[in-house]
Amino acid sequence: MAARPMPRGGNANLTREIPHLTGVVVGVALASPETVLVDNLVVATLLCDDATQLLSREHVVFFNQLTSPDLSVAQLEKARSTGDLEQIEVDLRDVPPEVSRIVVVAYINEGLGHRRSLGQLREARVRVLDLAGDDELVVSENLAPALSTETGLVLAELYRNGPHWKFKVVGQGYADGIAGILRDHGLRS
Fold first, then answer.
1. Would you write out the chain's pLDDT as a tens digit for each of its 189 residues?
2. What are the strands, taking DSSP E only, across 11-151?
3. Which residues, listed in sequence order, are joined to residue 76 by a DSSP beta bridge?
4. Hey, is 106 helix, strand or coil?
């Protein structure tokens, strides 16, 4: 499978095209001329059921909770390759059956009133690498030009389709940041 720019809404059938694929690394590249914005960006992963509802608070993987309860998803403390702000490692063989979707999000982690938004990004891309060899399998188009006042963004999702794992570029922004993303994925405060 050759890496190709994938537009918002595009998807790739990872394990059908690469039957031996057992794990992936999802890389997230976020860049802005404003260093303060980049320093306040958080990448998180939500482990969801087939209705895209979060299984529990413990199924949010981010800087303060680096692994899922079953250890199938882990946020790497240091990216394995250059170009990514954050990387998430997923062992597809160990993802429990109740997890149907693994949603990758980014948001600004700061109080309201700072007037920062994801519209200030010059780059927002997500890509998939083969865990075994770091070969780039899929890369999204730059999602940043479509952003304006949003403070949260669903970048992409890995999801089950029968016996296979697929990857979809989502690119959906949220004006209310992580609160809106979590609410839409079934987590009430």
1. 555 699 999 999 999 999 999 999 999 999 998 888 888 999 999 999 999 999 999 999 999 999 999 999 999 988 777 789 999 999 999 999 999 999 999 999 876 556 789 999 999 999 999 999 889 999 999 999 999 999 999 999 999 999 999 999 999 999 999 999 999 999 875
2. 11-13, 23-31, 41-48, 60-61, 73-75, 86-91, 101-108, 123-130, 136-140
3. none
4. strand
C-alpha 106/C-alpha 186 separation (Å) is 17
Cα–Cα separations (whole angstroms), residue 86 to 4, 75, 76, 160: 20, 8, 7, 23
DSSP string, 8-40: TT-EEEHHHHSTT--EEEEEEEEE-S-HHHHHT
**CB count in 10 Å sphere of residue 187:** 18
Query: Which domains does the chain show, CATH number per domain?
Result: 5-184 (2.60.60.30)
Distance CA 70, CA 56 (A): 13
pTM score, two decimals?
0.94
Q: Which two tokens stand for residue 120?
A: 């200030």
